[in-house]
Design goal:
The chain is mainly α. The protein has helices spanning 2-21, 24-36, 45-57, 60-66, 73-94, 101-120, 124-135, 137-151, 153-157, 162-179. It is built from ten helices and no strands.
């Protein structure tokens, strides 16, 4: 929970610094965080936060999906998805090497986000649902945390079935967030 609250605190700072300095800030911040952190600490996870903010503010997902080597849009998409799957496999495999763990933990969320952006954004109904989740993710996270730990933990976990507990907890979270 502490790391999630730290991210909530850090993201506005990263946004402000990115808007004043630019993308060179992301490279410098990631190099410093990777040099400072080690495999025992979780400070290298902040690199993915910095890169995520830079990708969002710089609209790099859209720029990457519009760029292509081929004239056919379908061929560009297929080629991009193939590259993203290969990158995902390589980064997932490199997580087994402790020397490369911080680097793969920094880049893996970006590759997964690109893959999801390429595949899921083309499904209209799912796209609207994911947009709703993205716009309300902070409310959903905080409501989910409060329900899970403070208010409804006895009710939800009394069901004794992991799948039923998950469905009830998620349904309560979404209903409460819709009310907000």
């Amino acid at each position: 929970m502490f790391f999630a609250l730290l991210i909530i605190f850090i993201v506005p700072i990263v946004c402000r610094v990115y808007n004043s300095v630019g993308a060179s800030f992301a490279v410098a911040a990631c190099i410093i965080l990777l040099a400072y952190g080690n495999q025992e600490s979780s400070i290298h996870y902040l690199c993915s936060v910095v890169l995520g903010v830079c990708f969002a503010l710089g609209d790099y997902f859209t720029k990457i999906t519009k760029a292509g080597l081929f004239k056919s849009a379908a061929l560009n998409t297929a080629f991009r998805i193939l590259i993203e799957i290969v990158l995902f496999a390589v980064l997932f495999y490199t997580r087994t090497f402790m020397e490369l763990l911080a680097l793969s933990d920094m880049l893996l969320p970006i590759v997964v986000s690109l893959l999801a952006y390429d595949v899921l954004c083309n499904i209209p109904l799912l796209n609207r649902f994911l947009e709703y989740l993205g716009n309300n993710s902070l409310y959903i996270f905080l409501t989910h945390y409060l329900l899970q730990t403070k208010f409804a933990s006895d009710i939800v976990f009394a069901l004794k079935n992991i799948w039923l507990c998950t469905i009830v907890l998620l349904a309560l979270t979404v209903v409460l967030c819709l009310a907000l």
